[in-house]
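For the sake of transparency, this paper describes our internal protein records without simplification. An entry from our holdings is shown next, in its original layout:
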Amino acid sequence: MRPVAMIEDEVELRRAVGDALQRYGFEVLEGSTIADAERLAPIADLLLLDLGLPDGDGLDLCARLAGIVPVIVISARGDEADRVVALELGADDYLAKPFSTRELIARCRSVLRRNQRGGTAQSEVVSSDIVTHLDSYRVTRAGQLIPLTTKETELMMCLAENVGKPVRRHDLADRVWGSSLGYVTRSLDVHMSSLRQKLGRRPDGESYIDTVHGVGYRLQP
């Protein structure tokens, strides 16, 4: 699991976001101050940073952490000026409160991909006539949105990020449910069956998602 540091002085919000991150397979490191952020930055893969903290302004911290850890600013200050300043000071993204869990997770994964690949993150994965939009968390066919549930979307994102490669059932369970396979085996099978049904068949009649026996599933490139 990838460690994400959540720096937020509102306890309820911090815990709610932390619970959401854990459900989607992240390890959460919690803090509520600038000092906590500086302590956790070297051991985190990503920093979620509120601006209004009790011991200082998060904007000042963005510049100091540039190059140490990717930063997504999470703030009630949604003015364009605040967003521009944060990004110019080194923040990788800016998310204004209130926000949805799906948007937060999508932005976290987008920033992590971008940094892992040196700024050349792949934003779309094409499998025949279906396109998985990794940054916007959508799956389309000929430009039309395919309506998927949250869990189905999560499965598709995970498969698309590893297109052409088998993804283990255990890894899917951990990523999508935040649980070991034994507890969600039936749920995984049901959601994968539903996802395949909604995707339909490729123009050549084959399935978009192959079963790799004894391993898991693979999205055909």
About this structure: Residues 146-219 form a domain with the Arc Repressor Mutant, subunit A fold (CATH 1.10.10.10).
